[in-house]
Amino acid sequence: MQWETVIGLEIHAQLATKSKIFSGAATLYGAEPNTQACAIDLGLPGVLPVLNQEAVKMAVKFGLAIGATVSPRSVFARKNYFYPDLPKGYQISQFDLPVVSTGETTIVVDGEVKVIGITRAHLEEDAGKSLHEDFEGHTGIDLNRAGTPLLEIVSEPDMRSAKEAVAYMKKVHALVRYLEICDGNMQEGSFRCDANVSIRPKGQEKFGTRAEIKNLNSFRFVEKAINYEVLRQIEILENGGTIVQETRLYDANKDETRSMRSKEEANDYRYFPDPDLLPLEIDADFIESIRTQLPELPDQKKLRFKAQYGLTDYDAEVLTATRELASYFEEVALLSGSDPKLCANWVMGDLAAALNKASLEIEESPVDPQRLAGLIQRIADDTISGKIAKQVFEGLWASLESADAIIYRDGLRQITDTGAIEAIIDAIIAENPAQVEGYRSGKDKLFGFFVGQAMKATEGKANPAQLNELLKKKLS
Amino acid sequence: MSLTSDEVNRIAFLARLAIDPDKIDAYAKDLSGIMNFIDEMSAVDTEAVPPMAHPLDQAQRLRPDVVTEENQRETFQKIAPKVEAGLYLVPKVLE
Amino acid sequence: MHDKTIRELSDGLKSKAFSSLELTESFLKRIERLDPSINAFITVTPERALKAAKAADEALEKGAAGPLTGIPIAQKDIFCTEGVRSSCGSKMLDQFISPYNATVVDRLNAAGTVMLGKLNMDEFAMGSSNETSFYGPVKNPWNLETVPGGSSGGSAAAVAARLVPGATGTDTGGSIRQPAAFCGITGIKPTYGLVSRWGMIAFASSLDQAGPMAKTAEDCALLLEAMAGFDPKDSTSLERPKETYSQGLDESIEGLRIGLPQEFFGEGLDPDIHQAIQAAIGEIEKLGATVKAISLPHMHLSGPAYYVVAPAECSSNLARLDGVRYGYRAENPKDLKDLYMRSRGEGFGAEVKRRILIGTYALSAGYYDAYYIKAQKIRRLISDDFKKAFEEVDVIMGPTSPSVAFQFGEKSQDPIAMYLSDIYTIAVNLAGLPGMSVPVGFSKGLPIGMQLIGNYFSEQRLLQVAHRYQGVTDWHQQSPTL
Hints:
The complex is a heterotrimer of chains A (about 475), B (about 100) and C (about 475). Chain A has about 475 residues and is α+β, with helices and mostly antiparallel strands. Chain A has helices at about 40, 55-65, 160-180, 220-240, 285-295, 300-310, 315-320, 325-335, 340-355, 370-380, 385-400, 405-410, 420-430, 435-440, 445-455, 465-475, and strands at about 5-15, 50, 75, 75-80, 90-95, 105-110, 110-125, 130, 140, 150-155, 190-200, 210-215, 245-250, 255-260, 270-275, 280. Chain A has 16 helices and 16 strands. Helix content of chain B is about 35%, strand content about 10%. Chain B has helices at about 5-15, 25-40, 75-80, and strands at about 60-65, 85, 85-90. In chain B, helix 1 (about 5-15) crosses helix 2 (about 25-40). The longest helix of chain B has 15 residues, at about 25-40. Chain B starts with a helix and ends with a strand. The model of chain B has no long low-confidence stretch (mean pLDDT about 90).
């Protein structure tokens, strides 16, 4: 039996507002428990929500970036259920009328471009956190996170492999960071993913029963979880069983998914429009004002890079993965005035490798675009060879000096390549037989002539010591 | 519209309300009566009528993204039934 | 002193006939003496009151006083009052000391009023007789065997018994108007959105409104002036120019067009009430008004629609009461489920539980369209009926309630019978219109109230009509002997 995997992702991106979606409490990560939970976040009797303007703007930005319709009128709805990290006993979300409707984005997998549909994106509030350790027989609830704005982004079930799912997740991750609406910090929980996974016989139109794997907070886990789940489902179906529609958790230690006990009871969320909030109306002027504030989006940038810098599809894809990386590259290209491909190679090659090794992001690079550009210029003008340049780069990484300073200080500007010097010497010897004859017959002073010639030939870059040694050798 | 005791139990659980087992039948009876009262609504055709969620025909006002609340944990936790180390405690939740 | 209106007391304070301190002490003594037999108060706050009275006297001394400075009032226990128990009439919040003030409380404090305490009410505002309160029923001062009405029963009884010159109430289906009628006082529920709901413990969010209850329309106007106004903390609060309801009350009502809905005068209406209403309308006609028969054809559906919308919204609003962050918590819960079930099962009374169950049911999968959406459509029809009526008339009048105050226990066994005592008032909340009740007579010693309904934002007119009526009658001046 040939099986086809069907995956849809629900991504919860925490919007980078200063205050909560419905209250004026702060949203900073890592604060002492319950120090950023005001009366509204605690769900005290009599409190009421008021909507944060910035959260709306951020949602609109996202909608525009995926080419979606921004709903002129959307409604907040209550999703009712009981859980200790949900103080009001309901979550304010959007149900029938979300703020952003159908859009799409593209991913590149194995060199192929694929369009992934996005069904909708809506605003909602985050819940608090439960801490299960340290309190004998009890769970501790921290409501700092309760009320933080979330943008829930729901994809169409368009992905057909874990690889595609990861590529989509990375794309959305880059997009929200590009738009500066989310910091994308998965360790801190700013960007979370639920995967809906099902399988069906290849060629069948009807979708199989899906399982939802919740709270996957790394690209690696998404891939592993989906892979495990697909195999699990195949095994069940091939043994004549049926898939239970349920919520599952991924256990990274055991590399398996397992059923979530507490969510086994079917939840009837009893959605209805929140009577404490009025419909959100967004007019064309508002949308336009946000459109003009949009930065250049990844897809546009990639096309521009290919056209403007003559980069390959692959190079452009890599360099536009994040806004920071793209901007770094462009600065290097501009400052060095050199071949963009050379710049691309250095940024994607030596620099990326060094950053990776030191676990640094491009924004934290000890080598700024200016200094790297300086190095590239010296390669481009043949001051130093590519090989020497790597040495210079190490110098740039370890200090704040410019490439020129390092080249001068370490004498790297000089040709220390013995082969090159020898070649020059050979040429001079070939061209000056009389002087060679003279030196070999004892006229020592003629040594200077050869040094002079070599220096002239190398524009003074030949290393004197090396030159002397090699000349002596060849003239003897 | 009549509600059975089973249904009352189901709804009571959805609403997390413990109801005395010997009172379930009385609740079922009361609720059935109320549902009958409510069923009078079905007498009128409302197919073409738009629902009215609010008396106000207005749009949601937006507030600026500014932090206006400061830490009041002590004040709020003074009235809490069970707290420890700044956290609200509930019987352990198994996931 | 206790018979004086707020207006008279204010004049007295300004002319130094007495001080706020004297006034406050006098009312506190009266409460101490008479409230045990009425049970209008859940919490009396003498220390705060005396402190506020002294501050008011200082303001009066400086000449920095407004019309409400130094006036004692009491707050329905549905309003959160900082540092004071705010129980909402429930065991669930019996120990809840609110860490903040409702906007209504802040505004009345800022206007210089002196809060004497928190008033009894039906649990979580669900009821029409004040029989569901955790703190025991409130007795109607006119006849202690009868109910004061609800849910603002404590507020109405306190004003009727002259324990306080004015009080706040809230009205979701008639909870200001009906108790005002049963207790022979004046009360107004403003247009939805006029008074902030911040700090007002929510029952049915799209229906709840706070309003004043006092002896006269003028007093209500003075209180409403202080209470009303835009509040940025409430998304359903309206931004409108501030109105001074107490101005222009004496103006002529010549040409006023009164509408009498046939649906308000059908079967089931007590003949004494019918008569009193007709007499009252006659008085108003003498002042220059004309009367026209109108129809509000979907009125009979207001009960069914209300008893879907209100319970649905409240079932969700009360979900926060779970014993985790505040309020009643069951002892020794064996697990989370037990914590929730028993805290809520033990903390809530039967009527609240019934309404939560109905609301949960109406919203649950499979029933949402048939009940909740249907009810919201009926709401639209009722609202349209009023809209049409107001094209032809200025004010709609009729009885506030089909009966006068009934006996304790008379309706509490049958929820529907209890719900039917609100049939004239509920539609007004569904439409969000302003509604008022004024005393217009007695039947067998119990007060009769007449309801006035106006178009959106016509509080000024309603108060004016009521004020003019009270200028030629004296029902509002009657008080029970205690």
